[in-house]
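tool_call: predict_structure(chain=1)
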Amino acid sequence: MEIGWSPKRTPVRPYEAPNRAWWKLSDVLAAHKGQKNWIHPVVRNRDLEADWHQMAPGGRTTPLMYPDNATALIVWGGQLRVSIKGQEPFVAVKGGEINIPYRLPFTLETVGDEPALWLEVHGAGDIPIYPVATTPTKPKDVPGFTYVQAALSGGDGQYGPKDRPYLDYYKDVVNGSERAGAFIAGDHIFVNNIRGRGTPTPPATDLGHFHFGYDEFWFIMEGNISYQIEGVPFFTASPGDIVIAAQGRWHRASFGGPVGQMDTRVAINPYPRGLHNFQPH
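tool_result:
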């Protein structure tokens, strides 16, 4: 491994709302107790944004697509029927990971008797496009933008040879024979399943690594993950929690459950080959 003088952001990027080092799922759910449909922002950075969504039984989204970035979803409750242009509709369940390429219209629908709960990740600042075929009336404008009819060039997004729209993580990996690994490795989004057995916590002198130009966040899929993040007290996150390491902060994630327990964190950042800066020893 080459040793170089790497620029470390000083001071480190602060946590500005809605970002926080540790979003406990229990806190998000408590904030919306009694509500049937809601959206809760949890991540906003230069490259990506992520929100929790809940939709009541029978709910259905308007068909839409995003201009130049893929959309990633992780389903965490209920059943969500997903319809993507060019794909057979499928029903996603808890632990399901969904990959929707750019410029492919999609619709989400809650099926069954329970609300659907999912985390949705987009490119930062992305604003949806609504096909005129399904939305003939002009959509409501958003601040700074006015919707106008336009002929859309560039073609549909595509799935690569190793890509797929859906991974049932619990069925295919936890209880199946597939190995954890990258689910989306696109131009501006990387969704990577990292799985291993619980181990003793490394010493505090092991700082992990930092990233020069971007924030990184994780969804805890299975077991427990322990985090040491610069400027933040040591903690152990649980399934459904979201953890953020702001740009420039040393951070170390370790399989934090009892020794031998299987743990999974889903790492999400904008660069499949992003630089990791480790201590030079």
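agent: DSSP finds two helices and 20 strands in the chain. Proceeding to next step.
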